[in-house]
Structures are given as C-alpha cells and as structure tokens.
UniProtKB/TrEMBL annotation:
The keyword Hydrolase applies. Keywords: ATP-binding, Helicase, Hydrolase, Nucleotide-binding. The keyword Nucleotide-binding applies. This is DNA helicase. GO terms for molecular function: helicase activity.
Length: 183
C-alpha cells in the first residue's frame, strides 16, 4: 500500500513507477558533495514540493503549464526523485523563473528510454551528458580552415625550379595568346 501511495500519479496507481521503485539499486558512492546534496534533496521531496521550492527562490509561482509538465513527466513512469533532478537540470540550464517544459520533457524522454530509476542514476547520466559536448568541441576545433596556405604570413614558397620554369612557360604562352586577340 505504501509503495502504491508513494508512486501514485494524481491519486492513480502507476504500475510502471512501482516497478521503477522496486528495481532501484542501492546508492553508489563516488559522488561529489554537490551531487550528494542534489541526490539527498531530490529524494526527500515530491516533484511538486521540489518545484515549489525552486520557484520560491526565484520569487515566482507555479504555472498551469508547469503542473501539466510534472504530470506528463510522472506519466512517463519516472519517479519523483528523477523528476526532481530533471527540474534542477532544466532550471540550471536556462536562467529563468519559468520551467523550460520542452527541454524537461526531452530529458525525461531520454531518461525513460534509458530506464533511469533513481536520482543517483540521473546524476550519472547528466554527468556523462556534460562530458560529451567537450569531446565535440575538441573535434570542431581541429577542423580545416578554408584560408589558403599562401595567405599565411609565415608561408614559404617551396616551388621547385622545374615547376617554376613550367609555370613561367605556361604564363608566357597565355600572354602571347592574349596579345594575338584571345581564344
């Protein structure tokens, strides 16, 4: 009964959330103090309470759209602790008093697909996600520049004598052709 009550969505029993809660693995260590605080706070409150606290710090009220978003997140089968981590991530990503609902749903869909069942797992996924863009940034930094080599101030012309003679001959022929009237 307590499990059903704890995982219910809008006073309706959610079997998916019950399974998630039952399949939770014990907490793994290796989290920073900040991450441990996030996990502890995420586990201690319902999603609505957590959102209310965040909104209170931003001197704002919960909108109808945000309530619906929380309902949709819960309908995906995510536990409140995972939803709370998603809320925190979303508010930290965008400096706004309002929840970026599209981003929250995107992250929630990813977590639902990956079967994230605990706040610890959610924090680990976010940590992985934050490390991926740095790899992409390194790859784009090494991309080829479209500026020709000869425009570089340090460029040294290393054309061989044979190649220079060939180019001079080609230049002479083209100039002669031009002097004769074209084609």
């Amino acid at each position: 009964y307590l499990l059903a009550k704890e995982t219910a969505v809008g006073h309706v029993i959610s079997t998916k959330r019950m399974k998630q809660k039952l399949n939770q693995k014990p907490a793994a260590s290796g989290f920073s103090n900040t991450e441990q605080t996030i996990i502890r706070e995420a586990k201690s409150k319902s999603a609505m309470q957590f959102l209310a606290e965040i909104k209170k710090t931003k001197h704002a009220t919960i909108t109808r759209g945000e309530r619906q978003c929380l309902q949709e997140l819960a309908n995906l089968g995510l536990l409140d602790e995972v939803i709370n981590v998603i809320l925190l991530l979303t508010f930290n990503k965008v400096d706004s008093a309002n929840l970026n609902e599209k981003y929250a749903l995107k992250v929630a869909n990813d977590f639902s697909y990956q079967e994230v069942a605990s706040a610890e797992e959610a924090v680990l996924r976010i940590r992985e996600r934050n490390q991926q863009p740095s790899k992409k940034a390194n790859q784009t930094a090494t991309s080829k520049n479209n500026v020709p080599d000869w425009s570089n101030p340090d460029y040294k012309n290393e054309t061989s004598a044979e190649k220079r003679a060939e180019l001079e001959e080609q230049k002479r022929k083209l100039l002669a052709k031009l002097d004769q009237g074209g084609d």
